[in-house]
Amino acid sequence: MFLLTCWHQIVYPGGSGKTSAARIFAAALNCLSHKGKNVKKPCGECQECTLFFARRSRDVKEVDSVSLNKAENLRYIIKNAMLPPVSSSFKAFIIDECQLMQGSTWSTLVNSLEEECHRIIFIMITPDLSKLPRGEIHGSQRFHFPKIKESDIVQRLEKICLEEGLDYDQNALEFIATRSNGSLRDGEMTLEQLSLLGKRITISLTYELIGIVSGDELLELLALALSPDTSNTVKRAAELMRSRIDPMQLISQLAILIMDILFGKFHEKISDVKRQFFERHTCEYTCITLTLYINPWYHQ
Ligand SMILES: [Zn+2]
Questions:
Q1: What is the pLDDT of residues 107-148, one digit of tens each?
Q2: Which residues have a beta carbon within 5 Å of ligand 1, which is an ion?
Q3: In whole angstroms, what is the distance from residue 180 CA to residue 148 CA?
Q4: N or C end: fewer C-beta atoms under 10 angstroms in the chain?
């Protein structure tokens, strides 16, 4: 058995092209136009490629990793793998999110197929290699797929907007890319959901969908918190949480905002709300600036 493991080094969702690469790899192995030659890419035209891309190949299967934890499903796959390929050179099984397979599933699968011929290939895909049992993946070939750059995600989202006739604000697409954590799939899904809410992809619509508070709203809440108006502070925080945001998310955003003010990063792209905030809280700001000045740690 030849066990190929595609993996992603960092614990983030997919979307960096692992699944697509696995499919192309499986197709390339069986492509008839490359028979006996070095395989570079599937031709897309031969009988095997046609069957594969129409999802009718009986020799390439995509298997749900969680379902394999059921003994009967696992037995079925192992039995199927033992049979020779119907028409292709190789039998290929693509298992996405393979970290969801239990340890016993791994050992049964690997032990059962250990003695079999070299025409069976398992392409295992995971975003987290550390969750796989070391002993079972020993000797497998591994490919690392890095995260996609934010600028590339933005470019792709722009292209989709143009193709779909969607108006967009550039900062909204940049924000979606930042939140996608290098996953094109996540970015595209967010854009798709936003397109159902309105024809224009704006930053406020994006905030609303993702469930976060805008910078100006946060600053207004902080200004209230710094004022003696406790009742309105609690009321505003409750309103925000009731409307869309998780309390932990709100606290985390507030903590980041305060750190940004302390590090002087919040003066970038100053808005009216920011200007009003600093005019109203000159004293607090002076104290913060003074702290920064006398404490060199903050400059590190
Ligand atoms: Zn082909």
A1: 998 888 776 656 888 888 888 788 888 888 877 888 887 788
A2: 31, 33, 42-43, 46, 49
A3: 9
A4: C
Question: What's the number of domains the chain is made of?
Answer: 3
Neighbour-count burial of 109, counting CB atoms closer than 10 A to its CB (0-12 exposed, 13-18 middle, 19+ buried):
buried
Asked whether residue 22 falls in the same domain as residue 134, the answer is yes
Task: Choose one of 129, 144, 159: the last residue of a domain.
Answer: 144
Question: What are the tokens at 277?
Answer: 């905030």
Q: Can you name the residues that pair with 91 across neighbouring β-strands?
A: 120
Question: Do 162 and 190 lie in a common domain?
Answer: yes
CA of 70 to the centre of ligand 1 (A): 35
Confidence of residue 237 (pLDDT cuts 50, 70, 90): confident
Amino acid at 131: K
State the distance from the centre of ligand 1 to the C-alpha of 42, rounded, in angstroms.
5
The CA 90 to ligand 1 mean position distance, Å, reads: 13
- 120 CA from centroid of ligand 1 (Å): 19
Distance 119 CA to ligand 1 centre (A): 18
Given a contact cutoff of 8 angstroms between Cβ atoms, the answer to whether 25 and 37 are in contact is no
CATH number assigned to the domain comprising residue 78: 3.40.50.300
Q: Which domain, by its residues, includes 67? A: 2-144
Model pLDDT, residue 284: 55
Same domain? For 122 and 155 the reply is no
Domain with residue 159: its CATH number is 1.10.8.60
Distance 93 CA to ligand 1 centre (A): 18
C-alpha 24 to ligand 1 mean position (Å): 11
Q: For residue 57, how far is its CA from the centre of ligand 1 (angstroms)?
A: 12
CA distances to 153, 180, 182, 296 from 156, in Å: 5, 13, 12, 42
